Amino acid sequence: MKKRTILLTGGGTAGHVSLNQAILPELQKLGFNVEYIGSKDGIESELIPETFPEVPYHAISSGKLRRYFSMKNFSDPFRVGAGLLQALSIIRKTKPEAIFSKGGFVSVPVAMAGKMLGVPVIIHESDVTPGLANKIAMPFANHIFTVFKETLKHVPAEKSTCTGSVIRSELMEGSAEIGKELCHFESDLPVLMIMGGSQGSAVVNEAIRSNLPALMEAYNVIHLCGKGNLDASLENLPNYCQFEYVTTELPHLLHMTDFVVSRAGSNSIFEFLALKKPMLLIPLSRQKSRGDQILNAQLFKQQGFAHVIEEEDLTPENFLSEMQKLHLDEDLLVENMTMAEPPKTSSEMAKLVIAHSKARYIKK
Ligand SMILES: CC(=O)N[C@H]1[C@@H](OP(=O)(O)OP(=O)(O)OC[C@H]2O[C@@H](n3ccc(=O)[nH]c3=O)[C@H](O)[C@@H]2O)O[C@H](CO)[C@@H](O)[C@@H]1O
């Protein structure tokens, strides 16, 4: 019997791909054929074929939907239109039971095409306030899942459920020993991981590198600095290890980490919470975003999971004093995180997706 198909979509940044990476193998275990619709050159076009070479990857045209003026605002609607035609053709061929959309601009024409062809569309929103792509796609959705319960105020309540976070299972299974081999640290100092989101952050990189001598006295530093941001002059330092972007290494690096400094993208911060890593968050500012990371970070601070410093308040001097405060608060932060609601497993999330698809029964 031919396997039933689930179509996944989402991309642009890893934050719009990582949940798809988590549930994809679980959907396969449940007996479904999984196919992916992504953009031609977004991060998903690398991550999905690399991790799941057996999964058909359909690249479609996508255009950015901007809230500001750009000459591309005139050409991008045509790209979105082309993406819609391509998505319609892929959906007609694959006849999916459901489309699961993790957001990002590429997902908008896919959700629209799903609605036009009567395929259930399920959207996932991981930030407190919905991103522009998800906002546009919401009318086409049959159901919306949110990570934060506060998000339910910003989405149509009658077709939305808060599921909490979902963590890729491999992140829970790292080995600190392998992490140590990857970094070649020579001392036993505590390990500080820096993550500037999936793309790296110039502001976070500057805060770290301008304080490197002081930081290296207190920590072994793992710096995930983003594509194109390696600094050749910092190679071969004994307590500093920089990577552009890590994939299979991440679980091991996380397991050897004692403290984290990070942007406040939803996926990252829930991963640190699940692994109980005391974190100092530097959310993306309102000048550069809709302020979603500020809200994510504030909710984590209110629950006692994180310390937060806003980008505008960050100076080389107060960064070091914030690190000292984080260190002093370590036990309390870990205690609070231990009491947090555990994340959903990828398998539970995959079953929720199926529960909202045409296929309402699952192979036992
Ligand atoms: C600039 C921007 O638009 N940022 C948004 C984007 O962030 P971004 O793409 O940075 O998303 P998140 O922080 O949510 O997730 C990043 C993901 O990348 C992974 N990772 C990161 C670095 C690395 O080297 N290897 C690796 O695997 C993390 O483990 C995590 O799973 O999506 C988030 C979720 O919608 C939003 O909250 C952010 O505001």
Please give a handful of descriptors for the protein shown:
364 residues; glycosyltransferase; 13 strands; Rossmann fold; globular; binds uridine-diphosphate-N-acetylglucosamine; membrane; 6-stranded parallel beta sheet; 7-stranded parallel beta sheet; 2 domains; 14 helices
Could you describe the 3D structure shown?
It is globular and about 60 Å long. Helix 1 packs across helix 14 (346-355) and helix 3 (72-94) crosses helix 4. 38% of the residues lie in helices and 15% in strands. The protein has helices at residues 18-29, 44-51, 72-94, 107-116, 132-137, 176-183, 202-209, 212-218, 250-255, 266-274, 292-302, 316-328, 330-338, 346-355; strands spanning 5-9, 33-39, 57-60, 98-101, 121-125, 143-146, 160-162, 191-195, 220-224, 240-243, 259-262, 279-281, 306-308. It folds into two domains: 5-166 and 344-355, Rossmann fold, CATH 3.40.50; 172-338, Rossmann fold, CATH 3.40.50. The chain is an alpha/beta fold and 364 residues long. The two termini are 16 Å apart. Belongs to the glycosyltransferase 28 family. MurG subfamily. It comes from Planococcus massiliensis. InterPro entries: GlcNAc_MurG, Glyco_trans_28_C, GlycoTrans_28_N. It is a peripheral membrane protein.
